[in-house]
Specification:
binds magnesium ion, 5-stranded antiparallel beta sheet, alpha+beta, binds adenosine-5'-diphosphate, single chain
Length: 152
């Protein structure tokens, strides 16, 4: 088994969502991965990081507020990409409600409430670890499908 890891701790501001997308793409670019798989991972990570910034630090944001992203590639018979998105924000009081499709605590801000639904459908597994006032950790896992090798 082979493992690779990357950690990014970055200021919790929206312009850094793009920075994390690029860093994640680069980290997994050596895998034998399709554009679709790459898009699924980038989109899911963007949703989780955006949530940390927009919801996690809502009302409690300071200059020190950061989002921590741990990315792992675990390679055995197949490759598994695992990404943890961690904030020290307000936490989620009711996870069942928060993950209900179209539920948003910010309807006034044109939020569609589809972030968790997107993460669930694009990744193989999503684990939400959150307690009120203690922050949130989202763990996203995706197996990269074995590709048939082509001999030209
Ligand atoms: P949206 O971001 O459009 O509101 P999501 O499905 O992404 O929809 O999230 C649903 C709800 O879960 C949010 O409205 C918010 O109340 C809560 N939430 C999500 N992520 C976090 C987080 N990191 N910290 C606190 N609350 C969160
Ligand atoms: Mg969201």
């Amino acid at each position: 088994m082979k493992q690779n890891k990357m950690t990014i701790e970055i200021k919790a501001i929206l312009e850094n969502v793009a920075t994390i997308r690029v860093a994640i793409s680069s980290f997994i670019s050596n895998l034998n991965i399709t554009i679709d798989e790459l898009m699924d991972i980038k989109t899911s990570v963007s949703e989780a990081v955006t949530n940390s910034i927009e919801h996690g630090y809502d009302g409690i944001y300071t200059e020190d507020s950061t989002v921590l992203v741990n990315a792992y590639i675990i390679s055995d018979d197949e490759d598994i990409v695992k990404i943890e998105v961690i904030d020290k924000g307000i936490g989620i009081e009711d996870i069942e409600l928060a993950t209900t499709p179209t539920y948003t605590s910010k309807p006034e801000l044109e939020h569609a409430g589809m972030g968790f639904t997107i993460m669930e459908s694009f990744m193989d597994e999503i684990v939400i670890d959150s307690t009120k006032d203690n922050g949130t950790m989202i763990t996203l896992t995706k197996k990269i499908k074995k590709k048939k090798s082509t001999v030209l």
